[in-house]
Amino acid sequence: MHPGPYNPPPGAYPPPGPYGHNAPRYGHPGGGSRRGGCSCLKWYCCCCCCLFITVVLFLAAIVITLIIIKPQVPKYNIDDFAVKTFNITPDFSLKSHIVVTVKADNPNKYIEFEYGHAKQPTDNFVKVMYSNVELCSGAIPDFTQPKSNVTMMNIDLKGDLKKDDWAEGSGESLADKLKNNDKIPLVVSTKLPVRIKIGSAEIDNEPTVISLNCTMNVKNFGTGKKVEISDTKYEVGLYVNKKFVKLNGFKFF
Ligand SMILES: *[C@@H]1O[C@H](CO)[C@@H](O)[C@H](O)[C@H]1NC(C)=O
Ligand SMILES: *[C@@H]1O[C@H](CO)[C@@H](O)[C@H](O)[C@H]1NC(C)=O
């Protein structure tokens, strides 16, 4: 007889156990518990796989949603100043009424923006500053900007300054610049609460507060004149949980 599959050479299998039969393959002195350990390991692997697949699918869903929705930051531009009243008297009291036109461009096909509805009134303002003196101020009206929409917001700003409200010499320097029709450096400082809406779903319950500061030079500034705006520079930031985050790395404009 040659050794073959059915005729194993002697010694190919372990000799019979002490009680005349083979030792159980996964046998343990304690018996049986190792088998449970293996299925536990399988179950664990299975769970890991499921979790991994779920995470991958979830991330893929987010990426696909973002590709479809293509969220874009809205663009804001100060388009015009209509100076209704701007009279500085020889004793430096100043009554002013300016209507600022802000062009808000929402390029998103699926996202709406809801402006205003501030929790605190101090979270919604527009101020015009001249060398750290507030000349006039107002608030942005509550409104919802639809998808793919450009809206001109007209914001009424009013101010009533007295002699003592000016910082050192700023009243004189403003009066001089107005008289000589020089460029006047202004800062338009804004805080604006915004809520994001996708479809009918509102994403944020609390509005996000955007801070927008625009430094500029204006010429031809005075009651009823056509104001010329130049050298505009924008700074943007967000208040997230009352913490200020500057967003100047972003391309807004
Ligand atoms: C943009 O939205 C405003 C406010 O809802 C609306 O009055 C205006 O007609 C819209 N403009 C365009 C171009 O659709
Ligand atoms: C805008 O100016 C105000 C007052 O100076 C400041 O508190 C705010 O942080 C500024 N915002 C940005 C985006 O720089």
UniProtKB/TrEMBL annotation:
<dbReference type="GO" id="GO:0005886">
    <property type="term" value="C:plasma membrane"/>
</dbReference>
<keyword id="KW-1133">Transmembrane helix</keyword>
<dbReference type="GO" id="GO:0098542">
    <property type="term" value="P:defense response to other organism"/>
</dbReference>
<protein>
    <recommendedName>
        <fullName>Late embryogenesis abundant protein LEA-2 subgroup domain-containing protein</fullName>
    </recommendedName>
</protein>
<dbReference type="InterPro" id="IPR044839">
    <property type="entry name" value="NDR1-like"/>
</dbReference>
<keyword id="KW-0812">Transmembrane</keyword>
<keyword id="KW-0472">Membrane</keyword>
<feature type="transmembrane region" description="Helical">
    <location>
        <begin position="43"/>
        <end position="69"/>
    </location>
</feature>
